[in-house]
Amino acid sequence: MRVLVVEDEQLLADAVATGLRREAMAVDVVYDGAAALERIGVNDYDVVVLDRDLPLVHGDDVCRKIVELGMPTRVLMLTASGDVSDRVEGLEIGADDYLPKPFAFSELTARVRALGRRTSLPLPPVLERAGIKLDPNRREVFREGKEVQLAPKEFAVLEVLLRSEGAVVSAEQLLEKAWDENTDPFTNVVRVTVMTLRRKLGEPPVIVTVPGSGYRI
């Protein structure tokens, strides 16, 4: 899942980003509304975690722009105000969900995951294919009933492949969905991660390389 965190409190923004990355999400971070508009014009995000009171461009205007562009991106709006009127106004602007500060990180993570599921065709909470069972909420993976311990990026790549339901996923698509924008597009990190993931999942191999196209399960 690709997430953009937009928050002018840099310590909070960085803490949220670090936590979401530990949950196997690809996360970009910006600290003002103008930078947010620039990022959503370049990258495809599943979810934008958007502070309402932003410098340069207000969070309301960022949200309106996402709606105006007809993007499938879901918006989780954050605010220091817990007033019902503020929550209603945020939702009427086009936000998909609303979370007042301070918040529990576990709740934010659950809301981001729930919104992420709404950016694509409905899929069951637990993904299963070829003897593999992946639970995004519990961060658990099993093959034929045996638990498999994966690093966050390995988990993210496996989740993207399972969500494709047998379709081929290119290295570029994996890079976009599982890594943030600071990753060198010419790196071999995708190939290395897939190799490690194959090894951890065991025999017989379930990840198929489609020459010149990508990978599928």
TrEMBL record:
Residues 124-217 form the OmpR/PhoB-type domain. Gene3D superfamilies: 3.40.50.2300, 6.10.250.690, Winged helix-like DNA-binding domain superfamily/Winged helix DNA-binding domain (1.10.10.10). It comes from the Bacteria. Transmembrane segments: none annotated. GO terms for cellular component: cytosol; protein-DNA complex. Residues 2-116 form the Response regulatory domain. The modification 4-aspartylphosphate is found at residue 51. GO terms for molecular function: phosphorelay response regulator activity; transcription cis-regulatory region binding. Residues 124-217 bind DNA. Keywords: DNA-binding, Phosphoprotein, Transcription, Transcription regulation, Two-component regulatory system. One of its GO terms (biological process) is regulation of DNA-templated transcription. CDD domains: REC_OmpR_CusR-like, trans_reg_C. Member of the two-component regulatory system CutS/CutR, involved in the regulation of copper metabolism. CutR suppresses a defective melC1 gene, encoding a putative copper-transfer gene, probably by altering copper metabolism. This is Transcriptional regulatory protein CutR. It comes from Streptomyces lacrimifluminis. The lineage of its organism: Bacteria, Bacillati, Actinomycetota, Actinomycetes, Kitasatosporales. The gene is cutR.
